[in-house]
Amino acid sequence: MNDTLEKRDSSNKTSGGREGMTKTDRLTQIFGKQIAQGEYAPGSALPSEAELCERFDTSRNVMREVIKVLSTKRLIDAQRHRGLFVMPGEHWNYLDADVLEWVLEKGTNPSLVRSLIEVRSLIEPTISRWAAERATAVDLVDIEANYNEMAANSRNVEIFQAADIRFHHAVLLASHNLVIQQLSDAVGALQRAIFDFTFDTGLEHMDLTVREHHDLFDAIRRKNPQAAEEASRRMVTRTASRALAALDEADSHA
Hints:
- By secondary structure, the protein is mainly alpha-helical.
- Helix content is 72%, strand content 3%.
- The chain folds into two domains: 89 residues, Orthogonal Bundle (Arc Repressor Mutant, subunit A), CATH 1.10.10.10; 145 residues, Four Helix Bundle (Hemerythrin (Met), subunit A), CATH 1.20.120.530.
- The protein contains twelve helices and two strands.
- Helix 6 runs parallel beside helix 11, helix 8 runs antiparallel to helix 10 and helix 11 packs antiparallel against helix 12.
- The longest helix is centred in the C-terminal third of the chain and has 28 residues.
- The chain is elongated, with a radius of gyration of 21 Å.
């Protein structure tokens, strides 16, 4: 990448950019995307800290914080006296919402999407069972509010999708499993990642999606763990079938 353009991109984003983000946050986004989207090959050496400071027109302190954050996301291997290297792709933290978003933003990654579908199919029915066993009155209010927003906006895809993600987030929180709750951002990112492969804006599909979410909410509200698990499994199985069919079709045209 041209260094002048890189500096201009960095400068524009750090002076205005996204509301509420620090310069470190914005540079983390820029540099993290470059790594996740293949501008630096996995296993390759990265520019030195001094070169990165020059390239991004920033201080050593800021650059060190960026490197530290990307190291925790397992994108960078930073070892003293050895330099900076891009970690192999299989070591990246795909449970990190940023990493997942950066990788998939560039385009389809069939292997990763298939892995995401498998994980969703594995965990969501169990989460739903736990929610039916453990949901409080406050949890039920949150789940119902998001279901109602979905039902009221089945012709508005953007609002519908946002409510859909919040619905599943509320179900996850209702599981009252501390470890699963810590994965809430990753699960939300997972859902957003596979929407492109599963979402059908046809009226029949939208109405069916609303009914599926009603069945799940109703089972949780009635504290019926088996019905909740079965409703969730039907939902994720249908979603998985559409996603895998879309991936197979894309492969056939590759």
